[in-house]
Amino acid sequence: MLEVRGLAKHFGGVRAVDGIDFAIRPGEIFGLIGPNGSGKSTTVNLVCGLYEPTAGQILFEGQDIARVPTHKRLALGLARTFQNIRLFANLTVWENLWMAENAPAHQAGTSFLKRWVGGRSDARERITRALEFSGLAHRADDLAGSLAFGEQRRLELARALAAKPKLLLLDEPAAGMNAGEIAQLDERIRALQGQGYTILLIEHHMELVMAVTDRVCVLNFGRKIAEGTPAEVQADPAVREAYLGTA
Amino acid sequence: MIVDIVQTLLNGLAAGAAYALLGVGFTMMFGVMRRLNLSYGATLMFGGYLGALLASRAGGALPDAALVLLAAAVTVAGATLAGLYVERLCFAPLRGRSGVAAMVSSFAVWMQIEEFSTWLLPLHTNPYPAPFNVASWQLGALTLRPEHLLTLLVAVLVAILLHRLLRASRFGLAVRTLSDSPAAAQAVGIDAGRTTLLAFLAASTVGGIGAWLVLVADQQVTPMFGMWSMAKGLIAMMLGGLGSIPGAVAGGLLLGVLEASGQALFGPQIRELIAWGALFLVLVLRPGGLFGRAAFDLDIAAHQRL
Questions:
Q1: Using the beta-carbon criterion (under 8 Å), do A87 and B180 form an inter-chain contact?
Q2: What is the per-residue pLDDT for A76?
């Protein structure tokens, strides 16, 4: 589904990501972990297009998208959430979803007028369903900026799903959550896999990653140090050293 | 006494309605780009000069009404076209990068556009075609001047249209997502470059309409118009709060009323002083403007821009 080859991103002299490779198979939950500053977030930003790589390829369903602009990657089937929630705070919950699900890139066939000036009625039913699914139906007309933290996280996920992506990038979805919320998140991620989504999960919270992923790639200092099933990776001496400082 | 107050208020609101449009154009540009466009006034002056040029070359050959309408069209189109030039030259290549560099280059383009305009019409004072050979109307003791009514009417119309555009249309919402989070906007499939350009052009058009309203009231355009319109737009924008469109409308109206009151009480020399004094007071007492967030919030937002 997604294959990264020799991907590198340098900021001046800093090699944030320094030639990594991994491949995600359709339908799996693929974890990307590593200590702080290991290059996880940079990798996500490369995959979703906010950064342009210094070198390497990003193949999505066989097509190299490394230089495709971010807004066009959504139409290809690549959606993401953000570690530090980035909603459209001054738009309502409903409008947040509308902007995502009705994204113009999706409807190349429709006329300019319909895409840009057109009304909201087409989307109403789909958005109502999405709001019910994420338990936000009662807040549809509130500004996204006024939601509680947990609701904002749910809205961000709903916004990513509204685009009907094939691959979903979850950037530290457990950040700031308590144990109960993480358990719910665990269930929700599995449910998404059940619905046929392929998921790239970037996460700090080790228990969640180990419980939910099929395979894990471990980064340290911008390089891949291990890849395999959660059990294999946990047993890897290089991973232990990176996390604990001892072999 | 009451009549004087109402008359002053009316004069102030009419002038303020034009200031409001100048401020709205300015603030829309800031809202989507988090950049100050220093050539804003110059693009409006260019539009005004094109209108005056039309009058000087073709004035005799056209019926008055046609000349007035054509001048309006040429002025608004000229401001929009100059806006296109500025956005492509100064802002598009540096989007997401150095804000200071973009601002400095817009300053250079200000000078360039101003020089070009005065090369087109080298005289200091150029007559601008205006529709008002009608006398003012008397409503009791109140004087209703036709240019005031025109300004109020047009400004309200533009404000309503713009409000609908930004609140209800997908394009308007896309513009607002860019002010909220450019990274997330791109992640949901919004083309940040194109949306910024279109919003910039819409802002130039709104500014051009505001400039036209001022010019038909003045019936002339001078090389000072660029600086003047930018100052009025800037004060209206800052009074209301950077990036806030309702703020710019309120700021423009407030500025108009303050100026008119100052002039009624202390004479015309005080007018400009009042404007700058009001800006100073608001910046000291409420730096985010009457409607806006604090300026440093926006500073942070500017650093996070992609």
A1: yes
A2: 87
pLDDT of residue B47: 97
Q: Where are the domains of chain B?
A: 2-130+144-304
HSE (CB half, 13 Å, CA atoms) of B180?
25
Q: Which of B171, B176, B187 sits opposite A80 (nearest CB)?
A: B187
Q: How far apart are CA B87 and CA B161, in angstroms?
A: 23
Three-state DSSP at B280 gives: helix
The answer to whether B183 faces chain A, any CB pair under 8 Å, is yes
- Residue B177 sits at the chain A interface (C-beta within 8 Å): yes
Mean pLDDT of the region A61-83: 89
- Does residue A40 contact residue A32 with C-beta atoms inside 8 Å? yes
How high does pLDDT run on average in chain B? 89
Name the residue facing B190 among A50, A71, A79 (closest C-beta). A71
Please tell me the class of the B2-130+144-304 domain: mainly alpha
Q: Residue A79: closest CA among chain B residues belongs to which residue?
A: B187
Write the CB contacts of A175 (distance below 8 Å, at least 6 apart in sequence). A83, A84, A204
Between chains, do B180 and A95 touch, taking CB under 8 Å as contact?
no
Asked if pLDDT for residue A159 goes beyond 80, the answer is yes
CATH number of A1-77+165-183+190-247: 3.40.50.300
With 70 as the cut, is the pLDDT of residue A77 above it? Answer: yes
Asked whether the beta carbons of A79 and A161 are under 8 A apart, the reply is yes
B295 by Cβ neighbours in 10 Å (0-12 / 13-18 / 19+) ranks as middle
At A6, which helix (H) or strand (E)?
Answer: strand A2-11
d(CA A128, CA A101): 12
pLDDT at B222 > cutoff 90: yes
Q: Predicted ipTM? A: 0.81
Residue of B86, B45, B53 lying closest to B200 (CA atoms): B86
Contact criterion met (CB below 8 Å) for A91 and A85: no
Q: Which of B161, B170, B186, B297 to mutate to test the interface with A (most CBs of A within 10 A)?
A: B170
Interchain contact, B169 vs A71, CB within 8 Å: no
Cβ B170–A75 below 8 Å, yes or no? no
Which residues of chain A have a CB within 8 Å of the CB of B177?
Answer: 88, 91, 99
Residues in chain A, overall count: 247
Torsion of CA A68, A69, A71, A72, to 10 degrees: -20
Q: Which residue of A has its CA nearest to B192?
A: A71
A158 CA to chain B: closest CA distance, Å? Answer: 12
User: Chain A closest CA to B134's CA: distance in Å?
Assistant: 39
Domain positions in chain A are: 1-77+165-183+190-247, 92-164
**CA dihedral of B12, B14, B19, B21, whole degrees rounded to 10:** 150
- Percent composition of chain B: helix, strand, coil (DSSP 3-state, to 5): 80, 5, 20
Degrees to nearest 5, angle at CA B162 with B158 and B163: 115
Please state, in angstroms and rounded to a whole number, the distance separating the CA atoms of residues B131 and B153: 15
Asked if B173 has any chain A CB less than 8 Å from its own CB, the reply is yes
